[in-house]
Structures are given as C-alpha cells and as structure tokens.
Amino acid sequence: MLQLFEEKSLMGVALRWYMSLEHGRVQTWKDLVKAFLKQYKYNMDMALDHTQLQNMAKKENGTFKGYAQHWRKIAAQVQPPLFKKELVIMFIDTLQSPFYDRMIGNVLSNFSDLVIIEEIVEMGLRSGRIA
After folding, report:
1. What is the DSSP letter of 106?
2. Rounded-to-integer distance, Cα 106 and Cα 25, Å
3. Are 82 and 90 in contact (CB under 8 A)?
4. For the chain, which residues make up each domain, given as ranges?
5. Directed axis angle between helix 64-75 and helix 84-94, to 10°?
C-alpha cells in the first residue's frame, strides 16, 4: 500500500512522518487516513480566534500590502467569522504609527479601499513626503 502513494507529493515533516510509518500497519487507504488524522488532528483543534488576529503586527521590513494580504488570509480562517465592519476595525487596530495615525480618522467599510490608502501612505513615507 505504501508503495502506491506518491512520496514526491510530501515534504518536510509530513514526509518524515510518512516514511516512519510501520509497513505492516498501513494496509489500505483507510488505514493511511486514520494514521494521518491521528498524527495531525491537533491542527484542526487549534482554530484561529479573534485574539490571535488582534495580536498580529506588520514586520518592520515588510510591505504594507504583504502584511494586509497575510492578515486577510488569516482573518478568513478565524472562528467565528468577522463581520466586514469588525474586520476593518480590527485590522486598523493592529497598525502601528504612521499607518494607524493616518487611518484613525478614516471611516471605511471596505478592506480593499483600506489597503489602497495605506499603500499610498507607504509610498509617501518612502519618498519622504510623509514624515
């Protein structure tokens, strides 16, 4: 059974786990599924929550757009899901100065508009037009 599985499709920790399986233990695909779930079920039990999202911060050397995309990807996994207004408020709350300073007076309900405005702020900072 193990020989039928395409080992090339696994990488890193998953490949090491797969290679360490006892050959006689996994006879069917169902056995493989059970072994996999037993090993990695904890990932499903660790759903992201609002607190983890609120504690995120843009890396000093990262771009604003990169941070926003990463944050939004994580936000999509949070349970229970956020309403649009909560999403924008929580994202703004994770920002540091000068991004937070520029956004605090802005009332936006659309996440993509927020990202565009912050990219403009980032360009202004790089060019020296915003101190």
Report:
1. -
2. 60
3. yes
4. 2-45, 50-127
5. 140
Residue spans of alpha helices (H) in the chain: 12-19, 29-40, 42-45, 50-54, 64-75, 84-94, 99-103, 111-127
Mind listing the pLDDT tens digit for each residue in 80-130? Answer: 888 887 888 888 888 888 878 777 666 665 778 778 778 878 888 888 877
Report in angstroms the alpha-carbon separations of 102 from 13, 63, 71, 95, 114: 43, 16, 19, 10, 11
Q: Position 13: which residue type?
A: V
Quote the distance between the C-alpha of residue 22 and its chain's center.
Answer: 34
Number of other residues whose CB lies within 10 A of the CB of residue 58: 19
The three-class DSSP label of residue 126 is helix
Give the global pTM.
0.55
Place of tokens 């900072």: 125
